[in-house]
Design goal:
It comes from Mytilinidion resinicola. The protein is mainly alpha-helical and 172 residues long. The protein contains five helices and no strands. It has a domain of 67 residues. It starts with a helix and ends in a 26-residue tail after the last helix. The structure holds zinc ion (3 copies).
Amino acid sequence: MAETEGNNTLARKLVRKMVKDRKKHNAVVDRLEKRNKTLELEIASLKKAESENSQKYSELLKGNRVLVQQKKDLSERNQTLEWKMAELERRIPGAVKELQDIQPHTRSLICKRCHKRRIACDGGYSCAQCAVDGLDCEYVKCRRFDNMKYGRKGCSNAACTQVHDEKGVGLD
Ligand SMILES: [Zn+2]
Ligand SMILES: [Zn+2]
Ligand SMILES: [Zn+2]
């Protein structure tokens, strides 16, 4: 009888230990699963970044190819220009120097109508296009340039197509 009771106590102890161990194991499994999920998320975001990077890389490569082509075109055009200049110099000695002495192009203005229609404007007043159409030719005053009046920075855009202080464009 005493032996059976002892066995029962032992069995209960074992069960308690097993339950405790299972709880511990479950906790470890939980932790591992959580860690696994975090790793999966990290892997997913790395994969995404990788595909984005490879896309960026291929875009850069494409841009580079375009640039290389443009550079080639430009150098070809430059070559042609040099040939033409040499030809001109051969025919009219001193012509090239004369051409080079001409002041570089000043800013070219674009009137409102030509700007809206996205067509070339000669910047005159009236411009040829508006004159042909028989309509008023108007120019926009550059607001950034006008800002100088208030002590602010003016217009630093060398290619600005609006009126700064030009006279004779209907704004003076
Ligand atoms: Zn125009
Ligand atoms: Zn015009
Ligand atoms: Zn301007």
